Amino acid sequence: MSRTDAILSRLLALHPKLIDLTLDRILRLLEDLGRPQDRLPPVIHVAGTNGKGSTVATLRAMLEASGKKVHVYTSPHLVHFRERIRLAGKLVSNRRLNAALEHCERVNKGEAITYFEITTAAALYLFAEEPADYLLLEVGMGGRYDATNVIDHPLGTIITPVSVDHVEYLGPEVAGIAREKAGILKRGARAVIARQTDAGLAAIEAEARKLGVTPFVAGQDFDGFEQNGRLVYQDESGLLDLPLPRLAGTHQIGNAAVAIAAARHFGLPVSDADVAECLKSVDWPARLAPVKGKLSAPLSPGQELWLDGGHNEAGGGVLADSLRAMDARNPRPLVLIMGTFANKDAAGYLRHFGDTPVAVFTVPIPGDRAAWKASTLADLARSLGLKASPKRGVKAALEAAAEIKNARVVICGSLHLAGHVLALNGTPPV
Asked: Taking every annotated instance into account, which residue ranges of this chain make up the domain Mur ligase central (predicted)?
């Protein structure tokens, strides 16, 4: 066990629940730490169900293309915890991370606090100690009572597409979930809202009205779409003709448009050339990304291997849409290798694919008892009319997929599974 893992294990034992949404505990710890949240660079706070990470990655690439230093906080990590924290553009070192975590542990003095709360406090402490031009701060879950919602005066807020997820904490209805996400809106701070369902948008706009905020809304105030192999963005300031995002998938058009809208609406020092440059270079691992390396060895010549961490019903929808677009350009048999958690709507996820997959191989998520059993997930897939069979792990599933000529093989269903795949492949995020 690494020193970081040992520290995190101790922190995990400070609260009986992994998630307990409230702000009392983190505000108490931040007060004892000297209120680092008041000593941050301008903050852009990002909530939503899907697309948060891709939107943050695109904004970071834009700002860095313009020469700015950017702090970033995202979650969860894929392989190493330090992926969550970027200090002025670089992943935090193990030494600085460990020192910050242990400092927060000492200051906390054994008081009850959740793992995400105390690690978020450590991130804010680090951000306050290192100069930067901006902080891109991603919500962990929900918004209103999320541990990141301690910034009184952000430069701006973003809400990416809202859908049903984490129902045990946020409820089963999109409108209620959207109200919780809208809890990050702040009086006096501009807000950019991605395209939403009617119920979700109505809930967000109602919360915005209470604060006197007029949100900048996709489909009303700005839009982005693909045209002739280009990304066309338009808002009240004019039209941009841009390269398509390097990130694969039809949904990345919308994510890029939200990031561009935020840059323009928040008055960020980003030129049109910076936007074009960032779209060509932006990277966000395990979001419909090709896999090259050791894991592709069992596959047959002519096959493709992809990895996607989308894990809820809406994530299945955007993956299925993107794969249909790929198939229209380059038809191939589709094979899914899927593992997911037991609290996820696996049936809703799989229904988006219809009868397109020629095979579904289900796998466990190593080391996690909260995941669907591969056999149970295979039974579910078969009940939906899919040809499915359980496998003992990713390598066994890849060996089975190798038998399907010219297949497009997609490992999907969980960011935790995606992290396991990247570790197996020897290609952790950097």
From this structure: 46-263
